[in-house]
Every structure is written in structure tokens, then in C-alpha cells.
Amino acid sequence: MKKEKPVILVVNDDGIDAPGIKALIDMMKPLGKVVVVAPDSPQSGMGHAITIGKPLRLTQVHLYEGVEMYKTSGTPVDCVKLAVHKVLKGKKPDLCVSGINHGLNNSINVIYSGTMSAAMEGAIESIPSIGFSLDDFGYDADFSPLTEFVQNITRQVIANGLPVGTLLNVNFPKTDQIKGIKICRQANAKWAEEFDERQDPYKRSYYWLTGVFQNNDQGQDTDVWALEHGYASVVPVQFDLTAHHAIPLLNTWNFDVHEG
Amino acid sequence: MKKEKPVILVVNDDGIDAPGIKALIDMMKPLGKVVVVAPDSPQSGMGHAITIGKPLRLTQVHLYEGVEMYKTSGTPVDCVKLAVHKVLKGKKPDLCVSGINHGLNNSINVIYSGTMSAAMEGAIESIPSIGFSLDDFGYDADFSPLTEFVQNITRQVIANGLPVGTLLNVNFPKTDQIKGIKICRQANAKWAEEFDERQDPYKRSYYWLTGVFQNNDQGQDTDVWALEHGYASVVPVQFDLTAHHAIPLLNTWNFDVHEG
To answer: What is the mean pLDDT of each run of 10 residues along chain A (260 residues)?
Structure first.
């Protein structure tokens, strides 16, 4: 008896018409039955936002032959919730893949990224989940050098599953000569923010958020190092944010409010 | 010589006019020089969203006597960035406190919460940071039983700092008889989502996100347990999301794309 093809949920944050999600859909087609739920407009930088102050729209669309597709008015995280609970009617997909993001989500970017938050929502739903990103913001970014890597990582996750409470954050350098894959930790880096101040026609100030990526981590086991040296980085990510190592120290503090 | 008062940045996600931030401002006034930067409208559920597709507004307001206050058009995370880089001109505050949130941010809610994401942004900026939340969504919630606890925790953080890369997630039960403070880990709980489907006057469907909080964790060292038993919960939180324990396993996988 032939085993049923795995159901693969594809989501993203750049929107349903982004070239990155088209590339990911094409890469997933040989591996399973693809269902797509994606935002109807770009949602970069949305982090783990959800929509609670207004209602959500969910509309079936027919963009690519043979693929069940929906667009939503929600955030990337809303897309996963709507996919699981409305589109798939509570039957969980075998896999959730997010991306391919136009731009890196390595290091601290994992926290700001809609792509990675969608994958994290998949993991919270106990679905093996992976986020994919490429170091190229361009609309005409070339995703083809990633194909074998994306498919191989996906096959491994389908075959092996992932440890409970974890997902994968996969980033690719911009090159057609990817050297291989490195398993990494999240580099200790941050954005050095700047605000570009301008004046509107009514002489009132407004600000554009800009910034410079600042790596403070010289480790050779980080995602930043791997990408700088031509490798794809794979970071296992968890949604238990507890700093377990800090608990013993805090237990030595005096929290007695009735003293002194 | 008298030591200078610490500069305390107060932010939130419920908006600059929320009773919770007024309560927190009043609690912080005896402890330092208070500067407030908060959203001009409610931003609950915004997670770690930042504003990159449109410009930001930042406007000084005069709501409470003797307090420097600004409202912004941005997210809670934007508020911290604007506070540090525009309002304080790059001079970091000695402390960042966020809240007091109208509603709990314990367990998995830390990930969806604008309150906690603002505190996390403070921590990413290397500012000792604390998020405070109360189990009461009401506009007329009574924050007064929290005063001593909030001030005591804040004094401890000012005196001791926090371990590198960590912040505190503090949640209070709805009672005027808080039993004390428990240092906890994040409970393994999640939202069982439901979508309330309705039809607009044009017969098109729309959806409201609703859900039931589902605790799958019987541990007595969790924030859910503490709150259910009348204690305030303090969870140390980190922004290194690496699942370090999963790295050895992933290193055993075969990622060779040229094989087979």
C-alpha cells in the first residue's frame, strides 16, 4: 500500500505574491501535498504579532497550478492559526515551512521576523517547522541555488521529526556556490538603530527606522560566521524563553515586601 | 555627594492613556527619574513587531505632573528604540519597565505579548528590563495591591542588575492577598484556537480569533502554578532562542546534497 504524501503547509511574511514563496512551493511540490496560507500584503518585521483587535479575512486564490492557496488579511502567525483551524479543519499538517524570506533572519533577527514567528507558531502547534531565508532583498533574487539544500533539510525533518519544542531557522548566503550546511547557535548580535528624521509638508517631524547590523560575537559556531564563510546556517530554535540558568541566582534575592 | 537618581524608562502596549501605565508611573516615581514613551493606541498582541514599512511619529504629551512623556504611532518595541535613540539621545536609561499590562503574560503569552517584547527590546539594548502584568483585563483593574511587590522587585534589579542577556517577566494574580513571589519557569501551555466565523452585510465571511488557554504542564515550578496558587510569578527570560540541546542531534544528520 502506498504511503500517503505528507501535507506541507507553506507560509511566509513577504506576502502571497512574493517570488520567495513561489520558489518554496516549487521546492515542496515533489515532497508532498502543498497547502499555502499567506498574507495578502507584506508583513516583514511583524514578529509574533497576532490580530485580536479586528476580524480576519481568508480568501481562496488560484495563483499556481495544482496548489491549494489562501490569502489572509492577518499576520504570518495568524496564517498558521487559520491554516490549522479553518483551512485544514484542525487536522495538523505533517510539516510547516515558512519563506523563503527575501533577506536574512539570522542572529537576533529571529525575534523580529514574521517568517520565523510563523514557523515558531507551527512548532507551538507541535508541527515540525522550518523557516528559510536568503541574503537577498531583491524582488529578482535567485533562489535556484538553494533547491537541493532546502529539499534535503526538509526530507530530513519529514523522516526524523524534530526534538519536542524546537524548530529550525535556516539561512542561506547569496552565492551560487553554497559550501554546505553548518549547525549553529544564534550569534550575539544586534541592530545599532538610527532614526532618519524628516519633516512633512506641515513642518511636523517623522522618523524612518534604519540601522546597522552589529556582530559582537567572534565565535566560529554562530550563524553569522557560517553565512560570512559561504555556508548555509541551521539554528535549532526553541519557544521556551526561560533563562533556566538565572533561576538559582534570583532565588537568593530578598523579595520580602514586609521587611525593612 | 548625593548619587544621581536612576533614569527609569516606562513603556507599555495598552497605550499611553491606559490605567496600567499610570499605576506603573506612580510606583516608579519614588525610585527614580521617570521617562515615558508609549503607543498612542492599544498594541496588545503585537509581539516583537517593528515598524519598517511606514514612518513613525513621536509627540511629547503632558498627562501627568512632573513626568516626561511621549506618545508614538509605533509598536511597543518601536517605543523602546525611539526612547533610547531619540528621546534619550543614545544615553541608555538605568532601567526599562513595561506595563502594567491589563491581562496575564505568563507561559507562552510571553511570545505574543507587546508588553514583554518591549521589555525584551530593552534587554537587547543591555538595559535591565522588567515586564509587569496583572490577571485583570478590566479598565478599572485595581493595581494597588501590587505596589510593594513591583517596587521591591524593581529595587532589587536596580541594586543587583540582571544576568547578561536576561530580563524578568512578572505576573500578578487578581487578589488583594498576594501570598508572595515565586521564581518560576515558563509553563508548557498553549492556546487552543477557535475562529468565530461571521458574515458581513455583503455575505462574505470574516473571522474573530478566540481561544482557550490550555495548560499541559503539571510542574509546581511554573508560572501558571504560582498564579493559580495566589503567588506573583517571576520568570527570567532570555533572547538567545537557540535550542542548544538539539545541536548534537542535528550534527548527526546527513545534509550532503550531492549524495544518493
So the answer is: 85 96 98 97 86 91 94 95 93 97 96 95 97 95 97 96 97 96 96 90 91 93 98 98 97 72
Shortest alpha-carbon distance between residue A12 and chain B (Å): 15
Query: What are the grid coordinates assigned to A44, written together?
Result: 516583514
Which backbone phi and psi does A46 adopt, to 5 degrees?
-80, -10
How many Cα atoms within 13 Å fall on the side-chain side of residue A167? 29
- Counting the structural domains of chain A, the total is 1
- In the numeric block, the cell 492557496 is attached to A69
What are the tens digits of pLDDT across the range B241-255?
999 999 999 999 987
**What pLDDT does B257 receive?**
61
Amino acid A1: pLDDT: 53
Q: How many CB atoms lie within 10 A of CB B82?
A: 25
- Output the domain CATH number for residue B18: 3.40.1210.10
Q: Is A188's Cβ below 8 Å from some Cβ in B? A: yes
Phi, psi of B170 (to 5 degrees): -110, 125
In whole angstroms, what is the distance from residue B116 CA to residue B93 CA?
17
B201 within some domain: no
Contact residues, chain B, for A244 at CB < 8 Å: 185
Please give, rounded to a whole number of angstroms, the shortest distance from the CA of B204 to a CA of chain A: 9
Residue A201 lies in a domain: no
Residue A167 belongs to what H/E stretch? strand A166-172
Domain coverage including residue A156: 7-187+220-250
Instruction: Enter the C-alpha cell of residue A245.
Output: 540558568
Set of chain A residues whose Cβ sits within 8 Å of the Cβ of B247? 183, 185, 236
pLDDT cut 90: percent of chain A above it: 86
Interchain contact, A242 vs B247, CB within 8 Å: no
The angle, 0 to 180 degrees and rounded to 10, between the axes of the packed helices B147-160 and B19-28 is 50
A48 touches chain B (CB under 8 A): yes
Q: Which residues of B touch A44 (CB under 8 A)?
A: 52-53
Q: What is the pLDDT of residues B188-203, one digit of tens each?
A: 999 988 899 999 999 9
pLDDT, position A43: 85
**Max CA separation in chain A (angstroms):** 74
pLDDT at B260: 39
Q: pLDDT tier at B120 (50, 70, 90 boundaries)?
A: very high
Q: Is residue A238 part of a domain?
A: yes
Element (H, E) at A69: strand A68-72
